[in-house]
Amino acid sequence: MPGLYLAAILVSAVGVAVCDARAKLAFWHDRRRTLILLALGWLFLIAWDIAGITAGVFVKGTGPWFLGIDIVPHLPLEEPVFLAFLTYLTLVLIGAGERLLPKRTAGDAS
Question: Is 25 exposed, middle or buried (0-12, 13-18, 19+ CB in 10 A)?
Fold first, then answer.
């Protein structure tokens, strides 16, 4: 079923966004910072992917769940969307971790 992988990424992103909105962990806590970090993380991961593709380390997988659209050879349309999702998920998890884990001060014993 073409597009299933992309749909799964988008549905997952909506779920993460709902958690973020409810607990104000990333985007709903500080929009500007989240967008900057999202862009920087996404650019780093895209550059990493392109370097891996150029070196021949990364190759495109095949399967009926991909749309079959390549942005460049071995970089399917779904990959940049997944990398944006991965970056956003990381920011939300960091926000949750900051809220759940006790803050340590300089005087705390290790």
Answer: buried
pLDDT tens, 77-94? 999 999 999 999 999 999
- Residue 108 carries which DSSP code? S
Say if CB 92 and CB 13 are below 8 A apart: no
**pLDDT (0 to 100) of residue 32:** 98
Domain with 21, as residue range(s), is 4-97
Residue 104 located in a structural domain: no
**pTM of model > 0.90:** no
Q: Which helix (H) or strand (E) holds 75?
A: strand 75-76
Q: How many domains does the chain have?
A: 1
Q: Is residue 103 part of a domain?
A: no
